[in-house]
Design goal:
The chain has 254 residues and is an alpha+beta fold. It has 4 helices and 11 strands, in the order αβββββββαβαβββα. β9 and β10 form a beta hairpin. The chain starts with a helix and ends with a helix.
């Protein structure tokens, strides 16, 4: 296939399925800038879902190779393994200050997370039960950060049926893994007041495809991102109209 044929084929697929569909069909050929965390139980059922409303400012994946080197009288001997080697993942950034529309596992109702009653945890108190939630669908940048923090904390819990698992989707790199949180840091400086920075370190323990086919999960993730972009664009247009109307009323009064 020539370059011109490849371009024509790509353009035809873009018109037919869009960037999202192109990524689902060829995840190793065309990237899509989406990151998400999914918390599942032992049976693979979704417990919580967090799609990053703003992509991280910095992302790193370090893939060390399990190779050892030994010097001998006859030269250098190397020993390697073909099994999966844990991957170090680091994310850092912020979610801004303004309100964000949150999407999670329930794409129809567009809630920020799929919550199930947790009868296995004995740490809940009356204060936790009575805690008020401003809105499950709309969060400030700080609220987005606290949702992610809560999800990471829940990843270490063990249910009656078995442990929970955390899945990290990084379609920008074309990789998805089962991960374990290593560290989570929140910071704020005087220069960026009210702008909460996060630094998240994860350890990938297995690729997603070793247990399930990620295609369906990718399709749901792509669909949620499209809806999120449309809602965010509509919200920005409404904000602009309100600002213009306020300015018009102010000018009229003057």
């Amino acid at each position: 296939m020539s370059i011109q044929d490849a371009v024509q084929r790509r353009d035809a697929l873009l018109q037919q399925s869009g960037k999202e569909g192109l990524n689902v069909m060829y995840p190793k050929e065309f990237e899509q800038y989406i990151c998400a965390l999914e918390l599942v139980d032992t049976a693979g059922n979704t417990l919580r879902y967090f799609i990053f409303p703003v992509m991280p400012s910095n992302m790193d994946e370090s893939q060390p190779k399990p190779t050892s080197f030994k010097r001998t009288l006859g030269g250098i001997v190397t020993m390697s393994s073909t099994t999966f080697s844990p991957v170090d993942i680091t994310l850092s950034g912020n979610f801004g200050r303004k309100f964000r529309v949150m999407l999670g596992g329930d794409y129809t109702d567009m809630v920020s997370a799929v919550r199930k009653s947790d009868t296995s945890s004995n740490t809940k108190t009356d204060k936790d039960a009575s805690r008020q939630v401003f809105d499950d669908r709309v969060k400030t940048g700080y609220g987005c950060l606290k949702v992610m923090e809560e999800l990471i904390t829940e990843a270490d819990r063990v249910d009656e049926a078995g442990p929970r698992f955390l899945i990290f989707y990084n379609l920008a790199f074309g990789n998805s893994y089962y991960v374990k949180p290593v560290s989570f840091k929140i910071s704020m400086s005087e220069d960026n007041n009210m702008l909460h920075q996060y630094a998240l370190a994860l350890k990938a323990i297995a690729p997603l495809e070793v247990t399930i086919s990620p295609v369906k999960r990718y399709e749901n993730l792509e669909m949620a991102r499209r809806v999120h972009e449309e809602i965010a664009a509509s919200a920005n247009r409404i904000d602009d109209l309100i600002a213009q109307n306020d300015q018009h009323e102010y000018t009229h009064q003057v």
